[in-house]
Amino acid sequence: MVVQDPHAAGLLLHDLSITVTEMFRDPDFYRAMREQVIPLLRTYSFIKIWHAGCSTGQEVYSMAILLQEEGIYDRTTIYATDFNQHALDLAREGVYAAEAARAYTMSYQRSGGSRSFADYYTSAYDHIVMDRSLKKNIVWAHHNLVTDQVFAEVQLILCRNVLIYFNKDLQARALSLFTDSLVSGGVLALGSRETLQFIDQEREFSALDVRQRIYRKKY
Ligand SMILES: C[S@@+](CC[C@H](N)C(=O)[O-])C[C@H]1O[C@@H](n2cnc3c(N)ncnc32)[C@H](O)[C@@H]1O
Q1: Spacing, Cα 143 to ligand 1 middle (Å)
Q2: 83 CB near ligand 1 (under 6 Å)
Q3: Residue of minimum CA distance from atom 14 in ligand 1
Q4: Ligand 1: does its nearest atom lie under 6 Å from the Cβ of 188?
Q5: Closest listed residue to residue 131, CA positions, set 119, 144, 142
Q6: Which mutation among 30, 83, 188 tests ligand 1's pocket best, with the greatest number of atoms within 8 A of CB?
Q7: CA–CA dist 66, 44 (Å, integer)
């Protein structure tokens, strides 16, 4: 029976969870991060960011690149969590198919990236390996948004393209975790098809960029 065999249960979970992701997914979102959120983060001496549902890590490395370019990565800790251990293991390795690099490069440029995306990885046969300097302030951890508790007190939470798979009750639970984890004035970023509208937590936030689904916790 699958449920009595942890290994089989893990494989089943891996198969069931949708882990599709990419670097600089929705480039305009990252542009908004650069222009509207980085200036807020700069005001803190130590910055803590939580990527909830980080999948295989591409969005986490995208953020690390952006923070490095903005000169604030050294004072940042990124907590990157997912309930899929296999995805987290791949994320920690930071090894991706070389054939994806071209699309990643275009998205990086469209997001406002000023360097060459190739500066951030080394090529090895048919793979690219993300640079070690990007990994140093990332803490990868298992966390289930449905059953686990508040993760840490942070200034920015990204939970993109995860809530879309939750029903209303589970969305409300995850959003209440985020509300409790954010400092006042902290920022919550959702995916392009996700919204706080019609959810109880809506009143706790004001919109920073409605189009990009970026919200700010009220003081
Ligand atoms: C479609 S991916 C989104 C990845 C990334 N955030 C992005 O936007 O590119 C959804 C991720 O949410 C994770 N996820 C789904 N349910 C979860 C839960 N209850 N707790 C934590 N992570 C979950 C999945 O394992 C998967 O990696």
Answers
A1: 10
A2: yes
A3: 53
A4: no
A5: 119
A6: 83
A7: 17
Of residues 134, 166, 58, the one with CA closest to residue 103? 58
Given this model, what pLDDT does residue 2 score? 44
Position 12 scores a pLDDT of 53
Ligand 1 within 6 A of CB of 23? no
Tell me the CA–centroid distance for residue 149 and ligand 1, in Å. 16
The three-state (H, E, C) secondary structure of 157-211, written as one string: EEECCCHHHCCHHHHHHHHHHHHHHEEEEEEEEECCCCCCCCCHHHHHEEEEECC
* Ligand 1 within 6 A of CB of 144: yes
| Residue 139 binned pLDDT confidence (cut-offs 50, 70, 90) | very high
Model confidence pLDDT, tens digit, residues 159-177: 999 999 999 999 999 999 9
Q: 212 CB under 6 A from ligand 1?
A: no
For the chain, domain boundaries: 17-92+132-217
CATH no., domain 17-92+132-217: 3.40.50.150
Per residue in 4-37, pLDDT tens? 565 555 555 555 578 999 999 999 999 999 999 9
The tens digit of pLDDT for each residue in 35-70 reads 999 999 999 999 999 999 999 999 999 999 999 999
